[in-house]
Amino acid sequence: MSNKNNVDKEVGQNQAYASNATSNFFENYRKPLMAVGIALVVGVGGYFAYDYMLAKPREQEAANALWKAQYYLSIDSVDWALNGHEDAAGFQSVIDNYEGTDAAELAHYGAAICFRAKGDFGNALAHFQEVNVDDQAVSVYVLGNIGDMNVELGQLDEAVKYFEKAAALSKSNATRDALAGEFLLKAARVYIEQNNKDKAKETLEKAMEGIDNRSATYIEADKMLSFLKAQG
C-alpha cells in the first residue's frame, strides 16, 4: 500500500507540474513577445518607409499607408491598428490593397500581433504564416509565434516543431544562444505536457547550452530538469 501511495503521489506531482507549466506558458511570454513584435513592426517599418522614398510609387504608397497602423500598434490601440481609424489605413487595409509589396508582408506581421492580443489565435496563426521576410530576427520571432499559436490551438506536435525551428535559426547566430534557450524551454514545456519526459530532458539540456547560468532561462530549465530527473 505504501509503494502504491508513493507512485500515486509521484504521478500527481508530475501532472501538477506539467499542468502549471502549461497554464503559465503564455503569461510568461505574452508581454515580452508583444513588445518585441511592436518594436519589429515599427522599427523595420521605419526602414521600409525610408527606403521607399526612392522606390516604385506603389511600394512608397504602401509604406505610407503602413506607418499610421504601426503608430497605433505602438500605443496599444489594437483595433485601430488592425482596422484603421478615420482616414488612416490599418494593417488589414494594407494587406488587401497592396498585395505583393514588402509593406504588405510586414502588415501581415502587424495583423498577427493584433489578433494575438485580441485572443483570436486562429487568425493570428494565419497571418504569421503569411509573413515572408529576409530579416533573420523577424523570421525567428515569426517561427516562435507560430509555435505559440499552435499551443493555444491545442496543436502541440506542430507547436514543438516551430519552437525547435526558431531555436535552430537563433543558434545560427552565435549571439542568440539565450534566445534559442527560451524557445527550447517552450519546446520542453510542450514535451512535458505530452508526457514525453525523455525528450523534455534532452531539450532542457540543449536549452542550457551556451547561456549564462544566472539567467532566468537557465535557472528555469535547470529547475525543470532536476524535477524530471527526480521522477526517474
Describe this structure in words.
The chain has about 230 residues and is mainly alpha-helical. It has 2 domains: about 25-135, no CATH class; about 155-230, Serine Threonine Protein Phosphatase 5, Tetratricopeptide repeat, CATH 1.25.40. The chain is about 80% helix and about 0% strand. It is built from 12 helices and no strands. It has helices at about 1-25, 25-50, 55-75, 80-85, 90-95, 100-115, 120-130, 135-150, 155-170, 175-195, 195-205, 215-230. Helix 3 (about 55-75) runs parallel beside helix 6 (about 100-115) and helix 10 (about 175-195) runs parallel beside helix 12. The protein is elongated, with a radius of gyration of 20 Å. Mean pLDDT is about 80; it is low at about 1-35.
Number of domains: 2
Oligomeric organization of the protein chains: single chain
Return the string of H and E elements: HHHHHHHHHHHH
- Count of separate DSSP helical elements: 12
User: Taking Cα atoms only, what radius of gyration do you get, to the nearest Å?
Assistant: 20 Å
Short structural summary:
The protein is an all-alpha fold and 232 residues long. 78% of the residues lie in helices and 0% in strands. It has twelve helices and no strands.
